[in-house]
């Protein structure tokens, strides 16, 4: 079954052109990875999970299909970690992580209102701290125990904090520096006593390791149990909190692997008799008791699963000895029982999510479309041949856009560790099904040619270069290309002419460049005129690259710190060129002799419509200084509209391509955690818009409005309404309301986003009088 989320937008331009948009997640399910899979406590077959990045996803059909539930929008690189269901089943909790920043926190997402209702900022945020583990008290979510790690010079330290008043005040109850540098592996609060705290300890650097620290006074004092034993997960019997299970952690031989059980609240422990199979790490990762049937217990280990149906009296072990099998179980990270069917369990493992319908005895791969799309992306469209190439796991997938058939090439298994940055593949824009693939390594790099999308290859070139930055084919000589390569420094740039008309006698020529800088764009027209973007300048050659003339008039705003990222030609008007740069989009109407700056912000690629005069698309990629965004124009770049990152559900991406139809454009986006995304914009002029005719389900009135805005959704309920200024800034938000008082807003045009209880998202532009 195709698994997707559809995001409908209605954007109304100042010229009363109506624009509908649709976002679909359409990548292959062969590479999907989700984690922390957790069943809802009351809704049958409803499960939650997190992606590799900043999204919570939900399934209403036991994992058959998925939708985006929540997007964490903190900035580039944000991650959601350690997703849990609250004890009363009404909320999801998670750690919000943004590397190397002071904005990390623990958040509480209310399921009913579809919004974050609590945020616990870490008390040591200024240390760039992040959450290692946490636990809420079952009966009061103002009581929280959290362990944090943070960098200290070239080392890492840890502090553990406790709050009983919702984070207004924190007590530091543990510090590695004061405790033989021993780190905490897991924390827990007794389900029946908010002052009884448990800390399982791991490795230290002073010869002291392990142990269980227990406090009965909110962390003011601790006693130690199981000294010297490295411990990790801790779990309580849902019917009797005096019954506690603890598993051993990673010790590399210092601790014998065991599952420990206490029946007296932690006063004493006994080893549960389980015979473990020797592995590499030999540690217990997860202990889960079925809340609705406590006789069921599952223990996840590095390479095996132990299940009990009699309350832990006896266990059955299922061993998975092949750690290189990335399509099976390895290193469980979480387990969740279906409250409506005790035989069904979801297991989050290191490689893939797994499902069992027999209590854990057998597992099947639960496939999703959410993965990291690595590498670049390219598209070919010429006559009857239409191909898309998008990166996955250091290789790529070829999709025939006519049939939808996908074929993977050079995909690296998840179990394979590689320092190789992956490969770059570009589609030849003259010859169908021809691609050029570049792979770099410490031993040198190679450029290969394939005339069948990658099934067979012929090497064209060996070169010491780190990057393959651009390629173009001579229309008059389709067996000859210009190819640009780069290194870590602009001075390492190389431009080569490669003639492979005789595949057994390939002729390569290194060309002299007018200046040394990255080449991110090459154009060759039907008269063999060559235009290249070198650094911040544009050069033209009419003699095959022997001599170059600068065509940079109008680009003076760019400095030595800027860069041109893309160079393209309008297929409907060969005199019209466009470039994307760190200083925005520039357009030339005279073949590159003069350039006019049309936008001012960072843009990474730009494209003209192949079908409709005036239509253009562009993207800003995720980087240290920018968030992914889409831009579009319907008048040859004179005016642009932007779909900002929050409107795009907070996705991260560094790859996009465009497919133009007569009245629409599809942006293919290779995202960091949602896989391949298709974002379609309908640019059909419809005169004065009728929203109900377009979406047939939503009403916002009056429009224009001066004070009260009424909102209604047919066959759904409004869960959240957010209003954005036209510069993208959020100015108002409200949960589960049908009216909004907008009288405090300044006069002007705003964009209203509505999220329903069915996870639909609608946009409409309004005027505030």
Automatic annotation (TrEMBL):
Leader peptide range in chain numbering: 1-21
Pfam families: Por_Secre_tail (PF18962)
Protein name listed in UniProt: T9SS type A sorting domain-containing protein
Secretion system C-terminal sorting domain mapped to chain residues: 700-767
Key word Signal present: yes
Highest rank taxon of the organism: Bacteria
Keyword list, A-Z: Signal
């Amino acid at each position: 079954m195709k698994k997707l989320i559809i995001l409908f937008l209605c954007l109304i331009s100042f010229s009363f052109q109506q624009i509908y948009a649709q976002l679909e997640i359409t990548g292959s399910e062969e590479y999907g990875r989700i984690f922390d899979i957790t069943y809802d406590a009351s809704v049958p077959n409803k499960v939650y999970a997190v992606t590799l990045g900043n999204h919570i996803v939900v399934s209403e059909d036991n994992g058959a299909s998925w939708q985006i539930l929540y997007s964490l929008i903190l900035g580039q690189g944000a991650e959601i970690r350690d997703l849990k269901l609250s004890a009363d089943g009404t909320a999801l909790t998670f750690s919000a992580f943004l590397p190397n920043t002071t904005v990390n926190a623990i958040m509480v997402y209310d399921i009913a209102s579809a919004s974050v209702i609590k945020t616990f900022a870490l008390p040591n945020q200024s240390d760039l701290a992040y959450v290692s583990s946490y636990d809420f008290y079952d009966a009061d979510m103002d009581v929280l125990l959290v362990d944090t790690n943070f960098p200290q010079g070239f080392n890492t330290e840890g502090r553990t904090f406790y709050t009983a008043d919702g984070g207004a005040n924190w007590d530091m109850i543990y510090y590695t520096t004061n405790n033989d540098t021993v780190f905490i592996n897991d924390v827990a609060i007794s389900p029946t006593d908010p002052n009884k705290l448990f800390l399982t300890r791991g490795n230290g650097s002073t010869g002291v390791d392990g142990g269980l620290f227990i406090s009965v006074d909110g962390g003011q004092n601790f006693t130690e149990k199981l000294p010297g034993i490295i411990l990790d997960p801790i779990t309580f019997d849902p019917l009797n909190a005096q019954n506690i299970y603890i598993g051993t952690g990673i010790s590399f031989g210092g601790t014998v692997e065991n599952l420990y059980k206490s029946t007296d609240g932690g006063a004493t422990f006994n080893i549960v008799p389980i015979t473990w199979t020797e592995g590499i790490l030999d540690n217990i990762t997860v202990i889960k008791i079925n809340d609705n049937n406590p006789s069921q217990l599952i223990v996840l280990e590095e390479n095996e699963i132990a299940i009990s149906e009699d309350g832990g009296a006896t266990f059955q072990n299922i061993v998975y000895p092949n750690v290189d099998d990335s399509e099976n179980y390895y290193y469980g990270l979480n387990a969740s029982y279906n409250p409506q069917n005790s035989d069904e369990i979801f297991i989050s493992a290191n490689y893939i999510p797994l499902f069992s319908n027999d209590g854990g005895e057998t597992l099947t791969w639960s496939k999703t479309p959410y993965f990291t799309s690595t590498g670049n992306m390219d598209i070919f469209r010429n006559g009857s041949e239409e191909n898309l190439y998008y990166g996955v796991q250091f290789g790529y997938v070829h999709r025939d856009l006519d049939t939808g058939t996908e074929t993977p090439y050079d995909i690296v298994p998840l179990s394979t560790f590689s320092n190789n940055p992956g490969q770059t593949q570009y589609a030849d824009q003259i010859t169908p099904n021809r691609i050029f693939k570049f792979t770099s390594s410490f031993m040198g790099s190679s450029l290969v040619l394939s005339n069948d999308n990658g099934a067979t290859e012929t090497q064209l070139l060996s070169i010491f270069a780190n990057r393959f930055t651009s390629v173009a084919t001579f229309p008059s000589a389709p067996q000859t290309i210009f190819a640009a390569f780069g290194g870590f420094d602009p001075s390492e740039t190389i431009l080569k002419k490669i003639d492979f008309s005789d595949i057994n006698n390939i002729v390569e020529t290194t060309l002299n460049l007018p200046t040394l800088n990255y080449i991110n764009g090459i154009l060759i027209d039907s008269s063999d005129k060559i235009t290249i973007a070198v650094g911040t300048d544009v050069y033209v050659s009419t003699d095959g690259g022997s001599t170059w003339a600068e065509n940079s008039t109008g680009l003076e705003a760019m400095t030595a710190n800027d860069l041109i990222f893309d160079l393209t030609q309008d297929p409907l008007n060969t005199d019209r060129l466009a470039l994307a740069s760190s200083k925005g989009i520039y357009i030339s109407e005279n073949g590159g002799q003069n350039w006019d700056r049309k936008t001012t912000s960072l843009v990474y690629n730009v494209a003209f419509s192949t079908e409709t005069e005036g239509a253009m698309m562009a993207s800003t990629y995720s980087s240290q200084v920018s968030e992914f965004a889409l831009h579009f124009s319907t008048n040859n770049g004179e005016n642009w509209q932007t779909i900002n990152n929050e409107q795009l559900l907070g996705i991260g991406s560094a790859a996009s391509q465009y497919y133009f139809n007569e009245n629409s454009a599809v942006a293919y986006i290779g995202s960091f955690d949602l896989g391949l995304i298709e974002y379609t914009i309908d640019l059909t002029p419809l005169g004065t818009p009728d929203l109900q005719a377009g979406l047939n389900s939503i009403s916002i009135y009056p429009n224009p409005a001066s004070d009260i805005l009424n909102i209604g959704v047919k066959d759904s309920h409004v869960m959240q309404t957010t209003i954005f200024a036209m510069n993208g800034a959020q100015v108002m938000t409200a949960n589960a309301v049908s009216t909004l008082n907008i009288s405090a807003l300044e006069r002007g045009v705003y964009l209203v986003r509505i999220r329903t209880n069915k996870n639909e998202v609608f946009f409409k532009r309004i005027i505030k009088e």
